[in-house]
């Protein structure tokens, strides 16, 4: 594999320091044999504002390096040696001198979010609302050659021996319904995808056993042709609705907290993103809610509610067959089974 010379690239094309699309295009043109995983991480580092921070500081400590690694882990799912190598490539390219070796990362762990590993059974009881919990695995860095990455979830609630989770990042792009029809949660194709394709892809057999069934009520107001308000589905994976957004306090009830960054995989599926609205230096996206759209004055029920780039909730909605809206799955996980 030909070594990517970022310093030379910057000298030839200085615009790559601020334009991630050109950065990726030039790397692929000049270094066609480069591993796509490396390219994706290099682009993410620029896109998240880390490169700009490097240029400002010029001298960085191991604590800075560990903080940057945390951003790549939290916002993109990039971890391990590849992330570290790419950060060091950028440091070298922009002339950053590291004061201490990265082995001092342990010091930075005191400022990291508390991540609960689902394999550490002896730590299950310590999980609290607001924690980041690791459970399952899904393609996130858009590099299929290195397999799936662990999924990080925000803990929204804890009841007895189970916790309610929502993915920290938007994991995929899927339509609420594949056809442009009037639908409710009970019959939408996204419900089927979450409880079949996603469920079987993201979780091992043992993990699947820990995911609780949840009774999901149908919205009280139904589109034309649906008269029952008693329809209740029984799902393992679901979406939150607007009432649940309000219920779970500071963690997702404010617009700022609801802003969401898509994974590189979701972004590659042409997710709607905006550079005007960011979170952790990364562009935010639309994500679906379990709410049929429109309103009581509307006779067209082919819409579903979603969260906008800035974290505001749009209950009027967007076309149910829109393929550029992201998905943040939610589920209840048993801590003791």
Task: Describe the fold and architecture.
Helix 1 (6-12) crosses helix 6, helix 2 (20-30) packs antiparallel against helix 3 (36-47) and helix 3 packs across helix 6. Residues 100-123 and 221-229 have low confidence and may be disordered. The protein contains 13 helices and 16 strands. By secondary structure, it is an alpha+beta fold. Strand 13 (303-307) and strand 14 form a beta hairpin. It has helices spanning 6-12, 20-30, 36-47, 50-57, 62-76, 80-94, 105-108, 189-202, 205-210, 242-247, 249-252, 255-258, 264-268, and strands at 59-60, 97-98, 115-117, 132-138, 149-159, 162-167, 172-173, 214-217, 232-235, 273-279, 282-285, 287-292, 303-307, 313-319, 326-327, 330-334. A five-stranded mixed beta sheet has the order 3-4-5-6-16, with no helix packed on it. Strands 12-13-14 form a three-stranded antiparallel beta sheet, with no helix packed on it. Helices cover 33% and strands 23% of the residues.
Please tag this protein with its features:
5-stranded mixed β-sheet; alpha+beta; 337 residues
Task: Tell me briefly what this model is.
The protein has helices spanning 6-12, 20-30, 36-47, 50-57, 62-76, 80-94, 105-108, 189-202, 205-210, 242-247, 249-252, 255-258, 264-268, and strands at 59-60, 97-98, 115-117, 132-138, 149-159, 162-167, 172-173, 214-217, 232-235, 273-279, 282-285, 287-292, 303-307, 313-319, 326-327, 330-334. It is an alpha+beta fold and 337 residues long. Strand 10 and strand 11 form a beta hairpin.
